Recover the amino acids of this structure.
């Protein structure tokens, strides 16, 4: 078996990334998922420890100082970061792992893990994104405006990602299937098939 793939999925907040990633995890029950830490307040229906580790600013800063964050950023006034321990555990076990993080974090990860696969999930249009953000009902006008302007900035950086997937309206299964196909293809990249190639050359 080829070694595990670390896939980073970014995309504007409200673009349906969370829903698509959930579907990918249902399709690939063995895949690992990094639960991020954040200082933002939980939204209705979010659970501590499975959607995020919801922690205070002091604890977050302490984790940074202790080197417990693999990457972190400030996004619309709140800290978000990837705790190192969970990711290292999954990678060590040889399984694939998904990190659902924004662009600044994605570039920090790519520097630390050059083999990481980066994918940006974009909405079909900005007006569709605005509709989805408002439809969520949990954001204030200010938050919607700041998330929309951040979204436009993020999408401009799409070309530094390895893959771009357009999350068409109402086709969660379609987007999730494309991501599963990309993971399958990445497992067959020759750089990840060294063991298989060496076995063959060793025996012949
Ligand atoms: P939200 O508040 O909508 O859950 O997340 C806001 C943004 O932060 C999203 O783009 C999400 O992907 C990103 N994000 C979530 N967790 C992390 C993390 O651990 N690190 C970074 N850099 N971004 C994150």
């Amino acid at each position: 078996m080829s070694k595990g793939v670390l896939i980073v999925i970014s995309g504007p907040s409200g673009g349906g990334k969370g829903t698509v990633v959930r579907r990918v995890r249902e399709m690939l029950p063995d895949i690992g998922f990094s639960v991020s830490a954040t200082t933002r307040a939980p939204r209705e229906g979010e659970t501590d420890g499975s959607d995020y580790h919801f922690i205070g600013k002091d604890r977050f800063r302490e984790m940074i100082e202790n080197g417990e964050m693999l990457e972190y950023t400030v996004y619309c006034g709140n800290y978000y970061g990837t705790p190192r321990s969970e990711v290292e555990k999954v990678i060590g076990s040889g399984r694939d792992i998904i990190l659902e993080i924004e662009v600044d974090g994605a570039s920090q990860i790519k520097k630390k893990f050059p083999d990481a696969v980066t994918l940006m999930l974009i909405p079909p249009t900005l007006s569709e994104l605005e509709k989805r953000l408002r439809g969520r009902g949990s954001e204030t006008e200010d938050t919607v405006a700041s998330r929309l302007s951040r979204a436009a900035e993020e999408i401009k950086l799409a070309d530094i990602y390895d893959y771009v997937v357009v999350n068409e309206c109402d086709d969660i299964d379609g987007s999730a299937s494309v991501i599963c196909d990309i993971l399958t293809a990445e497992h067959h990249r020759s750089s990840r098939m060294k063991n298989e190639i060496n076995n063959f050359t060793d025996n012949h």
Q: What stands out?
A: The two ends are 20 Å apart (CA to CA). The first helix runs from residue 17 to 27. The chain has eight helices and nine strands. The mean pLDDT is 92.
